[in-house]
Amino acid sequence: xxxxxxxxxxxxxxxxxxxxxxxPVAENLPGLSVSFADPAWNGKQIPNGQQCQxxxxxxxxxxxxxxxxxxxxxxxxxxxxxLSYGPLSNGGGHGIIGHWVEGKRAVLAAVxxxxxxxxxxxxxxxxxxxxxxxxxxPGYLPPCSxxxxxxYAAVVKAVYKAKKEGxxxxxxxxxxxxxxxx
Length: 182
Description:
Layout: H1 10-17, E1 23-24, E2 33-36, E3 64-67, E4 75-82, E5 96-100, E6 106-108, E7 123-127, E8 151-160, E9 170-181
Parallel strand pairs: 1-9
Antiparallel strand pairs: 2-3, 3-6, 4-5, 4-8, 5-7, 8-9
């Protein structure tokens, strides 16, 4: 990505990076089992067309299968990052998308990029991408490195998302998955 990308002030980032506002329930959290639900995604190359509009795509998040969701989880939160570009490499630099879930397994629908509307049922924008200017996105920012070989990944978190005043957001399990290079 170009240096023109502005980043949210460090003070705000510090509050979001450690768990995205979700308090871990244990020092060593269990892992989730996360895999691609769409065979076009293989973890090596970002599928053609899944890049940002600036580079000719209409990218969306990959549909993901998540297993081993612990009891008490009511949502899966997915932080999208560009591991090759420092300012957007962690804490959901490319956006954080949530999905309401029930049970031990779920298939997370693909969420369109560069929009905050027309989201699949049960999906929501937890936080928009941290980019600005020509790279600004009100939700998920698809891979946008112009084919320079940047590596993209997602941190998938099973959480209890507070529904009532006085409840605490809790992080119950997590797993990282490499989406591929673009």
